[in-house]
Amino acid sequence: MKNQPGTKAMFIISMAVFGTLGLFTRNISVSSGELALYRAILASALILVYLTVSGQKLDLRMIKGEIPLLLASGIAMGINWILLFEAYKYTTISAATLSYYFAPVIVTVVCPLLFRERLTGKQILCFVMSTAGLVLIIGTDSLGKGGTDVVGVLFGLGAAVFYASVILLNKFIRHVAGIHRTLLQFFAAIIILVPYVACTGGVHLSGLDGAGWACLLTVGLVHTGITYCLYFSSLKDMRGQEAAILSYIDPLTAVLISAVFLGEYMSPQQIAGGILILGFAIWNEKSPQPVEGGKGK
Which of 14, 60, 182, 265 is found 20 to 30 A from 176 (Cα to Cα)? Predict the structure, then answer.
């Protein structure tokens, strides 16, 4: 597969934008459930406009047999967002993001059980070393203290579990691909998030100031709507291994944002943990594989 002109640039831009998500969510004073709901609604509206203008029609007859999978993956995506936004509240953006990117490691370990794939020695090593990196980020000296950083990393790890669930469920969805699949998953997320928000405090949009509204619209329209369109438009022309490796621009950007713009501190131990997670995750991706649709963040 040969990349089209501008394809790689679009993909890199989308990954870099995803990496700034935590910076904007910090300024939105609503609950994580509310933020996830508004994100799904705004992005769905924008993607519907994009599909209409570009003439990309969805064949509803093709999805009848996959509605349960689309619903399950959409619910997992909504929970994933809630947990990730909670992680941002309790710990640094870098620690939350690095723990969240434990998801590919989870997928590597679970795939042999679900798809009878052989787990290689390299994959086992990557799992062990990435797990060691996660322990370093949490901090072995703070495990018994119940500090907010530990809570935040655990929320990030919980988000990783549901992110991995979305990736695995997408492997079973064969008749709906790319941006259409994501739109339907957003609809499913809205279905579950509306009652969740209603039962956990309701709507608090009136409490947002100008900066809060600007950040909310940016998260919904830019980070999700526009960036998902860029992501899927470029993904279809990317080689699997190249896309997998370039996707780590997202956590690297988040770490830089955390340090440069927010002045958030990472201990040498946490830096070493981050290097272990990203380094072994990238090494694990260095093998030819098909590109899977669906972005969890």
Answer: 14
